Amino acid sequence: MKKNGLTITMVIEAQSANYGEGIGNISQLKKMTKGNGETYSYISRQAIRYNIVNQMQCDNTPVEDAGVVQFAPMASISDYPEIDLFGYMKTSSKSEDKKGGQNIRSAVVRLSNAISLEPYKSDLDFLTNIGLAKRKVGLDNAIAQSEIHNSLYVYTITIDLDRIGEDSNDNVSLPRNEKARRVRLLLDTVQFLYRDIKGRRENLSPVFAVGGVYERKNPYFEGRVELSKKGLNIEMVQAVIDSCEDCKNNTVVGCLNGKFSNQEQIKSLEPKTIDQLFDYLKKEVDIYYA
What we know:
Helix content: 10-25%
Number of helices: 8
Order of helices and strands: EEEEHEEHEEEEEHEEEEHEEEEEHHEHH
Oligomer: single chain
Strand content: 25-35%
Structural class: alpha+beta
Low-confidence stretches: none
Number of domains: 1
Number of strands: 21
Largest sheet: 8 strands, antiparallel
Mean pLDDT: 93
Shape: globular
């Protein structure tokens, strides 16, 4: 079998990186409850996608209002990497020279939500605009509250390398060097990803990552990277690596030295630096498209 499934599961550290709909003067974090009854904050895959395409500088695909905002029917993956990587649904109305209907291309790059590894404990930040209100007599001081959570988060990216640059809807097949360029640019962006929110810039660069280019398009390590009392749960990661020959032969681990309390245990995975891991993945991409 040919290796055409790139997947990487990453641990990042962030603070209060995605808010949902607020209640009154309280800004609420996006949260979910797991089976253990604990509440965890998360960064939605839509938010991560927004930051990726923005920092790749490919968020320029034309859109139109056809009842709902959608990508323009004439937009092609040959000109717009965004819809090459993340897919599209384009609809057109019936006319004399068109049959009308819709074309769908599912995402080639799949993202999971970034879910916190540490439970949310209902911490709140108390906010006022007293600094502005004091500048003029008679101005009222507004008060607001914002949920806050500083945690490690984990999310997964999976890429179907054989579908990059291929669109049967428009009969497009891009040159192999352009396919490789787009995937390398995506990996470079993810390695140094950040997120602007509420006046802060959060560093979303991974502190731990595990993945590779595999024969199966399976996100092997999604839901398999957790914390234990002593740090990162190495036993679970090793169990996944040992689960099949595909994982044993093609998995690479990257880690920021000194971030986890069980750093000595992590050494059993023979980790590279984060930079070395991404260099390895980009070389595998070049080999695939060579």
